[in-house]
Target: Leucyl/phenylalanyl-tRNA--protein transferase
Amino acid sequence: MPTAPAPTPWGFPHHSTWDPDDDLVALGADLEPGTLITAYSGGLFPMPVTMDAEDQLGWFSPVERGVLPLDEMRVSRSLRRSARDFEVRVDTAFDEVVARCGSPDRADGWITPAFARAYGRLHRLGWAHSVEAWRDGRLAGGLYGVSIGGLFAGESMFHHERDASKVALLALVDLLSDQYADRRVLDVQWQTPHLASLGVVRRPRAEYLEALEQALSVPLPALLDVDD
Model:
């Protein structure tokens, strides 16, 4: 079981006060474990933002949330074939996955050293996990995210070989598809064209928050049972 972090001293605004047309809900606070767990449990996630030429910590809850229904991931025959070429592991290279997701070579990179350290702390407390695709002893792709009850909040993914990140996502879906699958939530923040091609759909904020409330009462998935 994850280790409970120290309570956050920060209070986030109640969702009834959120601007219905703005993904950005709040600014400030910190990236301490207790703050992150409180935020994710309330439907928020952090990203750095620049406002008035100043870098700040933003807390987002998209008006249209990107969610991957576990029974709707689109898996092509070629992806199924590719999956046989990789070894899937869980939590064997978390820091490396985060570092590669945050590579400065990525044009849309937002994972700063402070974010990497924050999620590293969450991982060591048992709240953050990586799913990895390996080939020939090398890390070929993977993803990481935060797991709270039946919520898996995907943060980022990367690949160095074709289909490697998709294989990691497919493995995650398989790991979450247990007896509680109908109440689990696989959150990917925003729907992009790439994610839409894999089956990610948009859910209105209110619908997402309702599903999240149900998901939080579900036991954690057996993330380490990668051979099952």
Summary: Confidence is low (pLDDT under 50) at residues 224-228. The first strand starts at residue 24 and ends at 27.
